Each structure stands twice: as structure tokens, then as C-alpha cells.
């Protein structure tokens, strides 16, 4: 059985004070990690303080990004080695905003995946599609190519701990979520791609998330789909009360 994964990605939002207060407020309201894993990805500026205030909590404080080298003359980048030494366990790589605004290629994302694994952390690999590709019927081949490229050279044992996030960029922050059928179709195709790369057994172990205008109103329906193992929320994760409701989706009416 795949443990459900409810994640939030704050992007470049909140402040240090509000980030720390957020962790303090939710830490006692989350399900145990062996039932539902919960994670918040935050600015590297906040991570240490969040970790210090997250003792005895099931929440995974998570990095939004990292570089593919451990150290060197890379001004402004975030070292995966430093993240690992801090106690970070998950790192998001390949988010559509990194691809679009910072020109990250599939090759760069693949290097980041290897850097995260090399430093004993788990990558949350995002793959996206644009509305243009969706309307032209090219969206699924695009997603398959991104997944295949991101996992190039990753062995089967390491792949079992990877998380994949299917995030159609036309649904991110737009208020227009994919239907449950569209979300499941995308996640199912990703699982079939993983089976082609590795095996059916390995594909069945890898968790696949849906991201794109996730709310407390649609999460329960999404989580009922057989190939959706969790969500990666954006706007809904900025409010502690809303994130707690997402994390406890099984009790929502």
C-alpha cells in the first residue's frame, strides 16, 4: 500500500515569522506519518527555523529547489549537500515555474534528481503540460518525455522512493483544476511509463501526486482515484487551517 502524501508548495510567499507560526499551529493537528505523509516546501531562508520549531511533528519540512552540484562557485544556488545536513528529506525539482522562468531543461532536472538522491534525500519530480498541448492532444506525450528524461540513469532501488507530481500548468494558480478524470488519466499514464522504465512492481510502489488548484472541495474526489496518491497544493497550503483540512481529507464531509 502506498502511503498518501499531502504536500504544500509555498513558492516565494510568507515571511519567516509567519512560516514559523504556521508550523507551530499545525504540528499537533496532522495525521501520523504512517497513515498520511504531510510536507510543506518553503523558501530556503525559512527551512532551518521551521525545522527547529517542528520537533516531534509528522510534518516533513521540504525544499522547493536545489542545485545539481554539492558546492562551488554558484552564487545564489542552494546546495543539496547543505539541505541534507540540515535534515531535509524531500526536495522539489522540475516545477513548471522553474522550467518556464529559469529555463531549466530536462537535462538540468535529471542532474538535480541525481544530486538529491546522492545526498540521501528524496526528489519530488514535477512534470507539467500547457493548455496549448492539452487542447492539441499532445499533453500526454509531453508528460511522458519529462518523466523519462528526469529518471534517466536512476536505478530501480532509488526509484522506489521517488515521488512524481503531475501538475498541468494550465491548472496551477488559475482556479481551474483538472477534472478528477483528467487528473487520474495523467497519473495513470505516468504509472504506466514507470512500469515501462522499471517494472510493474516498482511502478506500483512509486507515489504519484496531482497538483493544480487543489482545494478542500475537490481533494476527497481526487484521492479516491486509484493512481492518485496525494496532492501538491499551492494557494491552499498558505493558510494553516486549509492545509490541515487537506491533510485530514479522509474526515472531510
What's the structural blueprint in terms of helices and strands?
Elements: E1 5-9, H1 16-26, E2 37-42, H2 47-52, E3 59-63, H3 80-86, E4 90-93, H4 96-101, H5 106-118, E5 122-129, H6 131-136, H7 139-150, H8 156-159, E6 163-168, H9 180-197, H10 200-203, E7 207-210, H11 219-223, E8 230-233, H12 240-247
Parallel strand pairs: 1-2, 1-8, 2-3, 4-5, 5-6, 6-7, 7-8
Helix pairs in contact: 1-12, 7-9
Description:
The protein has 253 residues and is an alpha/beta fold. The protein has a single domain (5-251), classed as Aldolase class I (TIM Barrel). 40% of the residues lie in helices and 17% in strands. The protein has twelve helices and eight strands. The chain has helices spanning 16-26, 47-52, 80-86, 96-101, 106-118, 131-136, 139-150, 156-159, 180-197, 200-203, 219-223, 240-247, and strands at 5-9, 37-42, 59-63, 90-93, 122-129, 163-168, 207-210, 230-233. It has an eight-stranded parallel sheet with strand order 3-2-1-8-7-6-5-4. Helix 1 (16-26) packs parallel to helix 12 and helix 7 (139-150) packs across helix 9 (180-197). The radius of gyration is 17 Å and the shape is globular. Mean pLDDT is 92; it is low at 130-135.
Amino acid at each position: 500500500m502506498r502511503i498518501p502524501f499531502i504536500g504544500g508548495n509555498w513558492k516565494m510567499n510568507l515571511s519567516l515569522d509567519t512560516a514559523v507560526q504556521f508550523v507551530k499551529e499545525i504540528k499537533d493537528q496532522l495525521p501520523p506519518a504512517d497513515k498520511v505523509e504531510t510536507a510543506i516546501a518553503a523558501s530556503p531562508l525559512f527551512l532551518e527555523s521551521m525545522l527547529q520549531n517542528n520537533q516531534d511533528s509528522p510534518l516533513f519540512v521540504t525544499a522547493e529547489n536545489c542545485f545539481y552540484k554539492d558546492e562551488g562557485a554558484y552564487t545564489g544556488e542552494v546546495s543539496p549537500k547543505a539541505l541534507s545536513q540540515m535534515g531535509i528529506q524531500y526536495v522539489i525539482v522540475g516545477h513548471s515555474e522553474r522550467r518556464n522562468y529559469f529555463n531549466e531543461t530536462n537535462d538540468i532536472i535529471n542532474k538535480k534528481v541525481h544530486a538529491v538522491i546522492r545526498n540521501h534525500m528524496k526528489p519530488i519530480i514535477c512534470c507539467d503540460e500547457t493548455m496549448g498541448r492539452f487542447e492539441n492532444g499532445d499533453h500526454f506525450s509531453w508528460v511522458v518525455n519529462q518523466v523519462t528524461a528526469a529518471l534517466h540513469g536512476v536505478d530501480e532501488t532509488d526509484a522506489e522512493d521517488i515521488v512524481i507530481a503531475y501538475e498541468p500548468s494550465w491548472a496551477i494558480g488559475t482556479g481551474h483544476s483538472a477534472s478528477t478524470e483528467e487528473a487520474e488519466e495523467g497519473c495513470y499514464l505516468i504509472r504506466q511509463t514507470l512500469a515501462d522504465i522499471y517494472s510493474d512492481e516498482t511502478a506500483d510502489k512509486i507515489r504519484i501526486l496531482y497538483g493544480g488548484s487543489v482545494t478542500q472541495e475537490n481533494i476527497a474526489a481526487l484521492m479516491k482515484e486509484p493512481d492518485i496518491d496525494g496532492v501538491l497544493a499551492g494557494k491552499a497550503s498558505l493558510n494553516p487551517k486549509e492545509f490541515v483540512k487537506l491533510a485530514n481529507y479522509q474526515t472531510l464531509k
